Amino acid sequence: xxxxxxxxxxxxxxxxxxxxxxxxxxxxxxxxxxxxxxxxxxxxxxxxxxxxxxxxxxxxxxxxxxxxxxxxxxxxxxxxxxxxxxxxxxxxxxxxxxxxxxxxxxxxxxxxxxxxxxxxxxxxxxxxxxxxxxxxxxxxxxxxxxxxxxxxxxxxxxxxxxxxxxxxxxxxxxxxxxxxxxxxxxxxxxxxxxxxxxxxxxxxxxxxxxxxxxxxxxxxxxxxxxxxxxxxxxxxxxxxx
Length: 241
Fold this sequence. Notes:
Elements: H1 2-5, H2 11-23, E1 30-35, E2 38-43, H3 50-57, H4 62-74, E3 84-88, H5 96-101, E4 107-111, H6 115-127, E5 134-137, E6 140-141, E7 147-152, E8 162-163, E9 179-185, H7 187-190, H8 205-214, E10 219-222, E11 225-228, H9 231-237
């Protein structure tokens, strides 16, 4: 196995093959991985690619984050590195941990509603020595404070848990998933900012719904705070940059 892998020049491809071979024999679904300077505990039951990509490349979607920062600065829509990063739908921390550890932001607020993901998020923050600079809220981010919502759990994509919004069947049969109840609060309650000019208000499911249901990623903000949650919003506004 090792002799065959040595012939593959691309280290990410080698690591991906090694990951597939290892997870079949693990006594536990959890695996510790270190790529570069950051440490992560990952859950190999996640078949959608986040755990595998973190193992193979050391990050997940972090290129989208840095590219968005570059575009904002290039078009003078944001003055410089943020002092506060708001990571909505933080999952196990691949964005907020790396952003703070590598100096892209001084501090971060990580918002993650699903208990299992949130436990791994806290563990990964501790592994990287960032307990003092990353604050965690086990909560969804929505229209009202102290609201109880139903969360539909995906068994094989730990980044695809979805808020149940109505009784209609989902396009991917999400209504058949196991459900748990979670708490939801407004972004202002979870992350109060002294000056309203320092962040974009994402209250309300018009924008927050896609954060809670799709775990997409976006950048929104001005001044000292950037909200990171839904990539689709960035895609839709790219034409205006």
